[in-house]
Amino acid sequence: MSFKMEWNRIISILCVYGFLKEFRPSEPFISPFLNGPHKNFTEEEINQQIYPVATYSNLSLLVIIFLLTDLLKYKPVIILGGVAGIITWTILPLAKNLSVIQVSQFFYGLFSATEVAYYSYLYAKLDKAHYQRATSLAKAVILIGKASSGLTSQVLLHFCVMDYLELNYITLGALTLATIWALFFPSVSHSAICTYLVGFLKLRWDIYGELVLAVCSIVQGTLILQSTHVDALITNYILFIAFRAVYQSSNTIASSEIAKHIHSESYALVFGLNTFVALLGQTILTVLVIDYLKMNIKTQFFIYGSYYIVIGIAFALSGVFSIFKYCKSKLTKKSSSGDI
């Protein structure tokens, strides 16, 4: 089989899986489903006793997952994630009490933790030269899956074709298909448009990447801060779409560049550790801002926007230093060749 055929096969397999996995029309409506007549949980129970289980299980299980993913060669962990998703959406429609719902959120945390295996598998099966394009395609398909899922749920609810309970069955069906599809993955032996286009953008990311990430972070922070001053819903939608487009593009750059510079046996370990640290920081920030300081929504968004801008400034300083080192290195080489 030629390399091009192998490339197309791996990407096609992963894209189908990614789309099915993200096609979860019930997910945006979990809160009204739990709060509605089907379950009758209070908002306090949902926010303080149900959702935190998923966050904490994700945080704790992620450590185990990223240690095992490389060892198990990715595919079993991808299948495990699918099974965890199936269990989650099997329990959700059937559960009658709080403790059973909490069990479903434990499995949702496991489902989220296994996401690291998806990209690790991608990098393990493809040549490093194609990481950026492959990452952009994989992320674009995930965004398409999420967008299609959201649109489907909105249409079905708007025209009263289905209710919140029945949307769970579509999600369960899609995750079941995704898990079955994952069984046929080849084993490993050793904005959607913005995200897609990044894969074809040629740049010396090792030199200018930090400056690009600095600009992206500052733009994201500015968009978040702007949303705190806007009351119009449509404007906030536009700001959020712009934020997600910039986020996905910068995430694609960072993921592909990291993958190019690490050993093929360490993908899940590195990406899992990165995700764990990020999730730990998110948890600490959430506890501090919401539980301890009890800030209102606008103040929370001001903190998050400021955080992005500070990160952007740090990237900018690091980027300027990298360019200075690169220019100095070139001048040294020129002077050395001139002496010869």
Q: Your description of this structure?
A:
- Pfam families: Folate_carrier.
- InterPro entries: Folate_carrier, MFS_trans_sf.
- Belongs to the reduced folate carrier (RFC) transporter (TC 2.A.48) family.
- GO terms for molecular function: vitamin transmembrane transporter activity.
- The chain has two domains: 1-188, MFS general substrate transporter like domains (Growth Hormone, Chain: A, Up-down Bundle); 191-261 and 295-340, no CATH class.
- The mean pLDDT is 85.
- It is globular, with a radius of gyration of 22 Å.
- The chain has helices at 3-22, 30-35, 43-69, 75-94, 98-113, 115-125, 131-158, 164-182, 192-198, 205-227, 233-260, 267-292, 297-339.
- It is an all-alpha fold and 340 residues long.
What is the percentage of strand-forming residues?
under 5%
Number of spatially distinct domains: 2
* CATH fold naming of the largest domain: Growth Hormone, Chain: A
* C-alpha Rg (nearest Å): 22 Å
Full CATH superfamily name of the largest domain:
MFS general substrate transporter like domains
> What structural category do the secondary elements indicate?
mainly alpha
* Straight-line N-to-C gap: 49 Å
Q: What count of helical segments does DSSP give?
A: 13
